[in-house]
Design a protein that fits this description.
With about 230 residues, this protein is mostly helical. It is built from nine helices and no strands. It has helices spanning about 1-25, 40-75, 75-90, 100-120, 125-150, 155-165, 175-180, 180-210, 215-225. It is elongated and about 60 Å long. It starts with a helix and ends with a helix.
Length: about 230
């Protein structure tokens, strides 16, 4: 049980570090002024953005599945309904633009806050609910793993995107910002969401330890990949 907790702590540090970078870019377009940077095509960066967003959706789908199980186990009916709706949207393939991504992220953040609050309350749960919480760590571990791998690409994507917008002709800058908005939102906001999710996972792991609930082997395997 100790290894996953150390893993979560290490991942939290990574998430916070990535978020600090994102928040320090300054107003777009521009970012860091690198006079030696080569011209970057908006279309080329948009191609990278497509892969970034698709991988975000995959990670968000696993995390949504986990949060749905957690909400069911904890009796969070409102969050359960919202997460069911999010699962439908994620499964439809429609989460490709900034607005859709922002909505899914907000649902995850709200669910995370409610789950954390319920865990902190320390309510007595049934054996079935405890087992459901433990099982939720399987998709949760997969989602965290995918997000961690994705986070490694946030900084270079942000650099390329801000350079491409800066290099775009003045009459095309707004269009360039709009075209790259989904990827920029993911790169800027996912680290903060990841950090919050890791904090809740630590609460969950602590609760399961106190209740002598075994973490499924599949979850340990997923977390071991981090």
């Amino acid at each position: 049980m100790k290894t996953p907790i150390r893993t979560f702590a290490a991942l939290a540090a990574l998430a916070l570090g990535s978020n600090t970078f994102a928040l320090g870019l300054g107003d777009l377009p521009g970012g860091d002024k690198d006079k030696g940077a080569a011209t970057t095509s908006v279309d080329d960066v948009a191609g990278r953005q497509e892969s970034l967003v698709k991988r975000y959706v995959s990670a968000a789908t696993h995390i949504n599945d986990a949060q749905l199980q957690m909400s069911q186990a904890l009796g969070l009916k409102q969050q359960e309904a919202s997460l069911q709706d999010a699962a439908t949207v994620l499964g439809s393939g429609a989460v490709l633009d900034k607005d859709a991504i922002k909505k899914v992220s907000a649902t995850s953040q709200e669910a995370d806050a409610a789950i954390s609050e319920r865990l902190e309350a320390g309510e007595v749960l049934s054996t079935e609910s405890k087992q459901m919480l433990a099982q939720s760590l399987v998709p949760f571990g997969m989602g965290l793993n995918e997000t961690k791998n994705l986070a490694n690409e946030f900084k270079p994507f942000m650099q390329s995107a801000t350079t491409a917008i800066k290099d775009a002709p003045m009459t095309q800058k707004l269009q360039a910002k709009s075209k790259l908005a989904a990827g920029l939102y993911v790169a800027k906001n996912t680290p903060g969401l990841l950090s919050d999710l890791i904090g809740t996972s630590q609460q969950l792991m602590g609760y399961m330890q106190s209740q002598n609930v075994k973490v499924p082997d599949e979850a340990s395997d997923a977390l071991g990949e981090l």
